[in-house]
Description:
This protein is of the alpha+beta class. The longest helix has 19 residues, at 787-805. It is globular.
Amino acid sequence: MSGRGGGRGGAGRGRRQESGRGQPSPSFPRGGGGARVRGRDSSRGRGPAGPPPQVAPTQPPAPSAPAISTSTYHPSSSSGAESLSREVTQKLALEPQVGTTAPPLQPSSSKATRPPPRPGLGTIGRKCRVRANHFLVEVANKDLHHYDVSITPETISKKKNRRIMEQLIKSYKESHLGRRFPAYDGQKSLYTAGALPFDSKEFVVKLIDEDRNRGSSTSARKERQYKVAIKLASKPDLHYLREFLCRRHFEYPQETIQVLDVVLRAKPSENYTVVGNSFFSTKLGHTGELGNGIEYWKGFYQSLRPTQMGLSLNIDVSARSFYEPILVTEFVAKHFKRASLSRPLSDQDRLKVKKALKGVRVELSHMEYAKTCKIGGISREPISQLTFTLDDKRTNVSVVQYFRDKYNIELKYTFLPALQCGSEAKPVYLPMELSRIVAGQRYTKKLNDQQVRALLRATCQRPHDREENIIRMIRANNFQGDALVDKEFGIQVRKELALVDARVLPPPMLKYHDSGREKSVNPGFGAWNMINKKMVNGGRVDFWTCVNFSSEYANMSEDFSMELVKMCNSKGMVFRQTASIRIRSARPDRIDQALLDIYKESTGMKRPLQLLIVILPDQTGSYGKIKRICETELGIVSQCCQPKQAARFSNQYFENVALKINVKVGGRNTVLNDAIMRRIPLVSDLPTIIFGADVTHPPPGEDYSSSIAAVVASMDWPEVTKYRGIVSAQPHREEIIQDLYKTVQDPQKGVVPGGMIRELLVAFFKSTGQKPQRIIFFRDGVSEGQFSQVLLYEMDAIRKACASLQEGYMPPVTFVVVQKRHHTRLFPTERDQMDRSGNIQAGTVVDTSICHPTEFDFYLNSHAGIQGTSKPTHYHVLFDENNFTADNLQVLTNNLCYTYARCTKSVSIVPPAYYAHLAAFRARCYVEDETSDSGSTSGGRKAKDRNFEVRPLPRIKDNVKEVMFYC
């Protein structure tokens, strides 16, 4: 699985009022590790406003309820819609209605929503024990105090703030702080294990300017004075934390968790480079080059969170990309892979350097004292042509002459542009050859394919090695030897990984076609093959052709096509042997024309293509363009193949491509035997639709592109293997899916309901002849800090979409968040529990010890490890009207992972969420140039300006939407 997205947008942002949608106050952060709310990787605090009453689940509609027909799909009356809105608000916000004439009340805060309690622990499966990278934390009974800190003049640098507070504590600890040793978060909060001798006090701190300190004379040093005001804010109480962990108190003790988290992070924050919840340093492991002037540093992730076993410190090894601390001239040479700099930069290359270096701090070592500056841009002209006016405001001098006269330095690379600091009106020019990139600056832009591969090679660790490195990190932190952690706050951190009860769920039986020698299979260790098996529903292809854009493999088109068709037929498809129009080769610079010619020829012969086989160009970069043209302009379903892989004529490769082709032409590869036998609890008994939803965001460095939401839904109850997909663009880094339900004002029809959920519900009815009487919604890509907001808005949208189809239509919903971006790892304790890669076995599930104290969540490792350490997926139930038991939901989720269409392996996340992820990334191909190919292989504006107009995605042709085109 490729990594998703980048960080997800902040959870606490407000939203503008929209049609049919309320405006709750910002969400209350969830999880462990304090109040800071970040993206998907976050693990944050959350607490309801007290234990709200349990809500009785909505019962499924009676089987005799009138069936939906396309002719009877009408929006409900306005009074009915208002009634529904009130019902949803009450159910989600758990707030009483006041009066009957008042408008629907919005929740006073999204923290009023609380997920359902755990319905008990699962029992199905073979019991075992695993180790988890969670370390038990015990806390002495201390009198915690929280103080607000205000520093004047204000500084945004946490590093500088820490230096100021460090100097304050050093100067005033004995005389004014009552010998207390406070913990500081680098921003506005200070915490103590006992009261300070005052409630409010102001201090004066003198600090030497760091930029002018290193290697400079005393006379050159500049001392700055800061005023620091400290004022008592609150008294967090450890009693409520203990009550919460003992399940006697339901409000999440966020402030108390934040105090302890800041204490545990204090020393690492001083010693290492901080990136979110992670710490990096050249002292924490070897570094290595990633190419193009970028290197990786190793470090560790750390987060404090409440679990069933008590407070847990989750620690994992990590790695991030940083700029190499080299001269800018060296960076430019590496960036363009030049052995030396001997010629000027083109305008295109100059812009690339500007994009790569803007905002990076450089150190100037040619002056009397070391000084750092932030790069604002790159000059248009080479440095040999740049001049500026001296301080006397009369003399104009060239940059080259200035450095020769003042510093006796003869610049070598005068044909290169200068780095530009300062303002546009008064720029400061710095020669690249005298500017060294300051160490420890994170590279936040998207890594290219080569850099990603290099980082994976460098950081991929077998489970045993990763476990050893985690233990080494916890020992290096030496919390027991930390005066602040151990002596001042009385916090003890165990040095052993948590031993956790787990179970290995049995794999499901998979059904194949009865005409094959093997009619079914019981997969072992999460994998099987197609030998002696035929697809359970083979698709039919009568009209097809192939186009080859490869120059290196231009002569293989006919043979490749024949072998692929042969494989498809052998696996149960009905695939016509001869192409309906001529198989051809085409130049890679004439993709548009070649595809248009194929379309015109096929439609002109009244043989519209059901499938176009495309052999991609040798150079990457065309995949997105081909998919955009085929799927949004011509209405052609395509299968792209990488030329190097295709040229091997491997049976395994042909088999993998055949699996993709079959679902793209409407077939099914396999289905769960329990689905055929109607034996899946809470799925087989009533018409059930399973949704998957995801939002993908632009890569790092793009501060204006739209985010893309995708929703898929099963169309084939009771089999639940075919998924129809819909995509939609929305504002930059907006996590809540905007178009789940929407209304449009039509001049003739008035208010017309629409949206992604409604469209998929209609499609389900057209496909099955029945309306869904149960909804299961798997939502990918939501951090714990966003749970309440996403649940509130998206459940409301689901309710409104249902009600717009039929008055009172409210099928019960189960809403499950799927999280892959976490740092929990599970390690086997015995050899007989391992798979061949040394990982825990496929089907291992954990719902004890390291899971939430009261809520319904679990970790599921549904896939077999290949290399490195397997990452389990975390499933967290936010809403459940279907009353799933732990066993029912865990077994359903694990079994669905065996139905993924593109391979004969169980996958790591539930397929509807996986398909939504694929659909969203496919849609990104429609709106931006591709930088890498994705064919089948053997395996601007400111970010804060969220109000700019979102460019809608090109519309996918209807015949393409009918099949799983995104596979």
